[in-house]
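#struct-pred

JT: dropping the chains for the assembly here, can someone run the whole complex?
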Amino acid sequence: MTAPRDSATLSTPSTPPARPSPLLIHGLVKRYDDTEVVRGIDLELRAGECFTLLGPNGAGKTTTLRCALGLTAPSAGSIRLCGEPVPERAREARMRVGIVPQMDNLDPDFTCAENLLVYGRYFGLADAEIKARIPELLAFAGLENKRDARIQSLSGGMKRRLTLARALVNRPELLVLDEPTTGLDPQARHLIWDRLKQLIRGGTTVLLTTHFMDEAERLSDHLAILDNGRVLAGGSPREVIAGHIEPQVVEVFGEWSGHETAAGGGAAAWANAHAAALSDRFEISGETAFCYLHDAAPMLAHLATQPGLRYLHRPANLEDVFLKLTGRDLRD
Amino acid sequence: MTPNHWRLPLLSRRFIPVWQRNFLVWRKLALPSVLGNLADPVIYLFGLGFGIGMLVPEVGGVSYISFLAAGMVCYSTMNSATFEVLYSSFSRMHVQRTWDAILNAPVSLDDVVFAELMWAASKALLSGAAILLVISLFGLVDSRYVLWVLPLIFLVGLTFGALGLIVTALAPSYDFFMYYFTLFITPMMLVSGVFFPADQLPPFIRAATTLLPLSHAIELARPLLLGRMPEQTIVHLLVLAGYCSVAFWLALALTRRRLLK
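RK: done, full complex below.
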């Protein structure tokens, strides 16, 4: 080989070439009649990361996913899924994607193993290939002993794990999970998290939606908080917390002894009297005052002199950001 | 970018694993399913065939029960396809969410709906063939052209499968299907020549029956089972194929509108 070498490229540290983004969304808009459910969302997933879409009910999470997977056509915007334009080539793109839907839709007429076999066929996989993979998938889901069990006999957690195993039948590059742990008990949730971490370590990119903050904080490299069809904040969990909220929180509740009035003498009355001076910002929600601050020492010193009031001092977390950005009103 | 739900069907071979899925479920319950599908037309055939056959010695030169046999083959085929795309497809689409799971794989809705149609026709073929076997064993058919009835049964299954899929695409719940039976299937069965020759109907009803797919199915099946070639074969086939194609296109458009939002 006599071609001149480009020393600049050769001398760069040997980082592996970045894999292309498994999902790129630009300017996504989805309208139903006159209602805009998604109003201009941009997202970029990095290969191998876990990305979380956080948002209250009706924020547009599921609609964004449906558009990204080519299950519904966007009103505007562009989507590339595994390098393919969507919705035009959504079917080809889905060859390389695994999907765990919000509602269980395992085939009730089949056993666990049959569910995996039948699902693998939808990807055009040969029966022999799928059958060879079934023991591995069942083991991953902790369902080795349930190979020939009917779906009706499985617990909620087992169904979820089988759905996860089903989504892996085609060895996807990108795994999409819509609220994967909703309705599961803590043991089952931890098992799902453990399996997701295992997949991420193995190089699978994971995109999930949730409204559990601990799930997002625990699993994701990056996240986006959605509400009313827009991205309100994005970044790593730490960045989002640092960028949107004071680092410390003091939650104050209980009775404020000696200050009982006709209007009540609880934490709310105390907060209205003192919280503004002692914290950067405070909110009253029901019987609790949430005080956000950079330095908690003066407030803690003050609270120590107020009999009856109880408090909880903790670092700010994602839930505080979420509630700050999306409000405390109920979403039904 | 408004999706055009009325675009033509775009089909791929991916419909095959969806058909296979339905076949695998059916195989688990094959015997009761076949016997169940057979019981109804056989009871009609022998109940009415012998009962009315005592009063009516001959219809068009053959015994009443032989006349009725052809009607029962078409009736059974129609019912089998209709029940499949109404109740069973609706369960898979709406109740069990089986279609949602399939659509998450690289299979399009067009393929799923087409697979349902092909499966309904396959089941109809089984039902029709079973009743054909029964009437053959009882010597109620002339065997000369009897095998031609099998592809005809498949076509009739496709036609009624496609028509039923329209209803399924519109159905809010199982109760809705009652309207389709009472307003369409049952009246059609009564005027299309299943139980008695349609040409003895009043002229305006007779004119209406020529528009109904079941009457064209019977115009083809009856002569074939009695050992004659049907008249105007091409016309009858074209009517059935026309119903099938237009109904499938309409059903698919309505299903896209329902699910791809």
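JT: nice. The first helix of chain B runs from residue 15 to 28. Chain B touches chain A at residues 1-3, 12, 14, 17-18, 20-21, 24-25, 28, 96-98, 100-108, 260-261 (CB under 8 Å).
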